[in-house]
Design brief:
0% strand; 6 helices; elongated
Length: 120
C-alpha cells in the first residue's frame, strides 16, 4: 500500500476525476457506472488542465467522434475520427470507427479502404 487510506471517498473522487481527465473514454466505461460516486464524477467536466501530449488529444478526438456518432451527427463524428487519425496515424480504433460509420452511411467501399489500416 502506498500510504493512502482505504475507504476515503474524497481521495477516490479525486482519483476517478484524474483518470477521466487522462482518458475521456472512461466516462462511458462500465466500471465508472458501478457506484454512485463514480457515476457522479463521470458526469462532471474535467477540472484539471488537459495533458498536451498526442495520446491525450487522440483519445479526446476519438471520444468526441463517438459521442457525435451516438447523438446522430455523422458529419461531426467523421471529422473527429479523421482528426484522431491525423494526430496518431497508428490508432486502429479511429480507423475502425470511421469505417463502421462509413459502412452505416452506405459507403461500403470507403469503409473497406478506411478499415484496412486498422487490420494491419
Amino acid at each position: 500500500m502506498d500510504g493512502r487510506r482505504v475507504g476515503d471517498p474524497e481521495a477516490a473522487r479525486r482519483a476517478y476525476a484524474q483518470a477521466i481527465c487522462l482518458n475521456p473514454w472512461l466516462r462511458t466505461a462500465l466500471p465508472m457506472q458501478e457506484t454512485a460516486l463514480r457515476r457522479q464524477v463521470a458526469l462532471q467536466p474535467c477540472q484539471e488542465e488537459p495533458r498536451s501530449d498526442a495520446e491525450w488529444q487522440t483519445n479526446q478526438y476519438l471520444y468526441e467522434g463517438y459521442q457525435a456518432w451516438r447523438s446522430g451527427d455523422s458529419a461531426a463524428a467523421e471529422d473527429k475520427f479523421r482528426l484522431s487519425i491525423q494526430s496518431h496515424p497508428y490508432n486502429s480504433a479511429a480507423y475502425a470507427y470511421l469505417g463502421l460509420l462509413q459502412q452505416e452511411g452506405g459507403r461500403p467501399m470507403d469503409a473497406w479502404r478506411t478499415s484496412r489500416p486498422a487490420c494491419s
